[in-house]
Amino acid sequence: MLINNLNKVISREDIVNQSSLKDDTKNRTIDMHISNIRYKINDNSKEPKYIKSIWGIGYKFFYDN
Question: Which of 22, 25, 61, 64: disulfide with 2, CB 3.0–4.6 Å?
Answer without folding.
Answer: 61
